[in-house]
Amino acid sequence: MYDVEKIRKDFPMIVNHPELIYFDNGATTYKPQCVIDALTGFYTDYTSNVERGEYSTAIRADQAYAGTRDVIARMINCKPKEIAFLANITAVLNQIAFGLSRELKKGDTILISYAEHASNVLPWFRLKKELGVNIRYIPLDEEGNVIIDELDRMFDDSVRIISLAYVTNVLGSVQPIRKITEIAHKNDALVVVDAAQAIGHLKIDVKDLDVDFLGFSSHKMCGPDGVGVLYGKYELLQKMEPIFLGGGMNARFDIDGNVLLKDAPERFEAGTPHIEGVIGLAAASEYLMNIGLENIHAYENELRSYLIQKMLPLENIEIYNPANPSGPVSFNVKDVFAQDAASYLSTKNICVRSGHHCAKILHNLIGVDQSIRASLYLYNTEVEIDRFVDEVSRITLEETISIFL
Ligand SMILES: Cc1ncc(COP(=O)(O)O)c(C=O)c1O
Fold this sequence. Notes:
Blueprint: H1 4-9, H2 12-16, E1 21-22, H3 33-45, H4 56-76, E2 83-86, H5 89-101, E3 109-112, H6 122-131, E4 134-137, H7 148-154, E5 159-165, H8 177-186, E6 190-194, H9 206-209, E7 213-217, E8 228-232, H10 234-239, E9 250-253, E10 259-261, H11 275-291, H12 293-311, E11 317-319, E12 329-333, H13 338-347, E13 350-351, E14 353-355, H14 363-366, E15 371-374, H15 382-393, H16 397-403
Helix pairs in contact: 3-11, 4-11, 5-6, 12-15, 13-16
The site of pyridoxal-5'-phosphate has 12 residues, from helix 5.
């Protein structure tokens, strides 16, 4: 049985700050004690660099660092050598765009959607500017879900890549990735998946989805900041040029400038990596797998429906994605600027995100530039939702002005 009270005790931020209602999990998540212990264990017991030392603490660090590849491989169903560690999903998407750019030419097409985060837009825009590739937008329904039939009709010989968020960060649409890869592969296009908002919220099986590349950030799944995971089918990773060059990723180089890179995945990990972060990510992954990603997903969906059911009757708000089954709830309070409403909620110890959420072209779809986003996670409760909805129901223009006086 899903025991949320037990789970809450694992998170020092919740234990130390019972007054806070944290509904900003789309931005980052709280960390359980086991992740904190993994970090401090590295600092207090075996600090050393990796793949550079022959002494006992360095060997222990090597094993722990490499061990994370095994854990992630188990979590998303791939081979450990298909996993590279970068700084975050932003770095991962930049790496993929840079790597694939070597195979693109003027007139090739990349498909993305209006609902993408800046990290899955700007690296492709750069290729448009530098190479003259076309960027085209996949049609979405009013809650941001890909319209599969229309996607099918977009394919012609020029389409080389389709890059999409698995779960979008404002509307929380869960895109039908399996169907998308089927269509893309039939048309010889590669599929890149930004799993930033999906990882740790639902079970991801990259083999079943048949995606070519997928990435996520550790900090959005209870792990440390500063670590991103790049998954790629091995033959694609082996062909891909790394964005960063330096120590750790080359096998040898000589005075004449001849360089031999290491095989994937090490070739993508130039310089000293975020060793303790990677080790902490293994602890986070094990923690979530022990609870069960299906259980977390089911619990979150229940919570989300509860939140929607409580919010729908409120007359002072407009919700943009009531029908989506999971993900964040995005809304505005009528006549109130989103940031002001979020500041008001902050005076009640409620943490939500407001603004455009780095999805600046999304207003083309929903017609508003700014919104408030309540994003839930495995440790949130119905009691918190009751308090949140009660406070949201009280927000008026006058109330928000009064907090600034
Ligand atoms: C869908 C999506 N992609 C990419 C990112 C960027 O994540 P990071 O800042 O960890 O690189 C985010 C962050 O909110 C996101 O929600």
